[in-house]
Structure formats: structure tokens, C-alpha cells
Amino acid sequence: QVLLSFYFAATAASLVGRQQVAIAGRFYSETADRPDPDLPIDITNPYEKDPQKCILCKHNISPHYKNVKLLSQFQSPYTGRIYGRHLTGLCKRKQEEVEQAILRAQQCLLMPGYHKDLDFLQDPKLFDPERPVRPHKY
User: For the chain, what is the mean pLDDT?
Assistant: First the structure.
């Protein structure tokens, strides 16, 4: 192989020019054992942050209108208002599912509409409504 590559480089030199010979000689003299040291090495980014997931996606929970205890976490205890995405930290899809499930539970009279059920006031908080997860423009 070495003789063949040398012969090819010599004939290329007589046909073309000195620049082409250097390129052809370098190309044919490389082996598969030694990769080109000028090629970049694939490494993971050490500064890359882990992708943030919402709490429902992280635990693979889908909100259902009969799960009133979970849905009451996303409702204000004083006004019954549904908290927004900037407070709950949910992704858009799960926030819409939670809102639909809360409205359906209220229509089925499983949840009150204007205040939080007293049974669920002592439940642990999934988020702090006073400290938004994402900043809000207001």
C-alpha cells in the first residue's frame, strides 16, 4: 500500500502540481489507526444545565377531575382562583389540563368555586404563591 500510494503521489506530481501532491500524499499516507489530530473531539458540555420539567411531568402525573386533592393545590384558598403558570411552574400543556380538570370538577360539584375546601388547607404546598417561579410583567 505504501508503494502504491507513493506511486500515485509521484504520478500526480508530474500531472498536476506541487500543492496537489502534498494534499494527495497526506491523504493516502493517513491510516485508520491514527485519526487526524486536527478534528474536534466530541465531549459533553460541562456548563449545560439539566432541562427543567414541571412537577407533574417530572412525576408523570396527569390531572383528573376526580383527584380533587391534587387540583386544590392549584387553587387560591381565599378566592378560589386558579393560579397561573408563572406561579405554579407548570408547562403549558399541564397547566391547560389542570385548568380544564378544575373547571370540570367545579361543574360536577366536587370542588367549590369561590374558596378552597377546608379539608385541603393543611396540605403541603407544591409551590409558593408569594414567590413566582417565572417573573411576571405585573
Answer: 78
What CA–CA distance (Å, rounded) separates 79 from 109?
17
Contact partners, residue 28, CB within 8 Å, separation at least 6: 5, 8, 9
Query: What is the rounded distance in angstroms from the CA atom of residue 20 to the CA atom of residue 120?
Result: 80
Contact between residue 71 and residue 63 where contact means Cβ atoms under 8 Å apart: yes
Q: Which of helix, strand or coil describes residue 113?
A: coil
Question: Whose grid coordinates read 458540555?
Answer: 45
pLDDT over 70, % of the chain: 72
Set of cell numbers at residue 39:
478534528
In angstroms, the Cα distances linking 67 to 8, 39, 90, 111, 132 are 77, 56, 17, 10, 24
CB within 8 A of 89, min separation 6: which ones?
Answer: 54, 55, 127, 133, 134
User: What pTM value is reported for the model?
Assistant: 0.61
